[in-house]
């Protein structure tokens, strides 16, 4: 699932079991999907902080992995569920860029020997 809003982009894999509750909590429309929700949660952290990211992320229940890129601030925010149920991989490409994907073979081909499963848990 991919979503972009106000120069913030989110690639989301998996699902959130408590999305309906989170939508109500944040006052979002019923048609909001996981990627839309994460962009809104990220904007809340960025614009109304200072709240630690784990304060919002600890509310997420499900099997997931996601990447948020904030084009305005040039920041990347990456997380996966604590159980590591979604296959999520990262590596360093030949040009030095960091690559994330749920496709192990793509990462393996793009990053040669410099790739690994993304660790379970939340990372900023």
TrEMBL record:
Pfam family, one: DUF3700
Domain of life: Eukaryota
SUPFAM superfamilies: N-terminal nucleophile aminohydrolases (Ntn hydrolases)
Sequence ranges assigned to domain DUF3700 in this UniProt record: 1-124
Organism: Trifolium medium
Name assigned to this protein: Stem-specific protein TSJT1-like
């Amino acid at each position: 699932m991919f979503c972009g809003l106000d120069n913030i982009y989110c690639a989301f894999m998996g699902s959130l079991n408590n999305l309906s509750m989170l939508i109500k909590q944040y006052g979002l429309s019923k048609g909001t999907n996981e990627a839309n929700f994460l962009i809104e949660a990220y904007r809340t952290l960025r614009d109304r902080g200072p709240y630690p990211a784990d304060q919002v992320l600890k509310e997420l229940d499900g099997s997931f992995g996601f990447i948020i890129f904030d084009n305005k601030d040039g920041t990347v925010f990456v997380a996966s569920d604590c159980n590591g149920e979604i296959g999520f991989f990262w590596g360093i490409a030949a040009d030095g860029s960091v690559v994330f994907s749920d496709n192990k073979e793509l990462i393996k081909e793009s990053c040669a020997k410099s790739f690994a499963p993304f660790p379970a848990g939340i990372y900023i």
